[in-house]
Amino acid sequence: MDSIIIRNAIVSEKAALEALQLRASLANEGDRAALLANPDAIEQPIEQIASGDVFVLELNGKIAGFAALIPKPDGDTELDGLFVEPDLRRRGVGRLLVEHCAQIALSKGSLNLCVIGNPHAEAFYLSCGFEMGGWTETRFGPGLLMRKRLLA
Ligand SMILES: CC(C)(COP(=O)(O)OP(=O)(O)OC[C@H]1O[C@@H](n2cnc3c(N)ncnc32)[C@H](O)[C@@H]1OP(=O)(O)O)[C@@H](O)C(=O)NCCC(=O)NCCS
Question: What's the total number of domains in the chain?
Fold first, then answer.
């Protein structure tokens, strides 16, 4: 049986998380060229880890994915990053991280968990209960404005 733990990331994991982010992002075929041309896009700020807003999911003792949150000025919470090891996709890791982040956001009084989603991930976010709110421009092209209501 698999053992699954979700816990706060620690500062010494910064490099490992960035390496995971790179592997996960490069696995999106359409993003590869832009990412390789802009390696600075891969960064997991130490301050965000230190502030307790980055969560890792360990599957059988190894980090399988992580998510990062940012509080928004309007009281909602932004899902600022979500990455799963490419060879562990479609095993529910992303969904568990979203559910954990939704609980954290709710506990802080947010009404919504928001994300500027990569179009590659639209089906994933819809399946996790996010709704489409429109489009925005990002450094790497169009982004999906999505939000998940945290109260019924
Ligand atoms: C998007 C991502 C986080 C999804 O993580 P995951 O662990 O594979 O997702 P889950 O296994 O929890 O998927 C939950 C559901 O989402 C949907 N889903 C997930 N990936 C999907 C895909 N590629 N195509 C269609 N539906 C998908 C399915 O309904 C899935 O349930 P099912 O497997 O029972 O059918 C992961 O693919 C990833 O890290 N991608 C690269 C980085 C990225 O794009 N992150 C998002 C930035 S906004």
Answer: 1
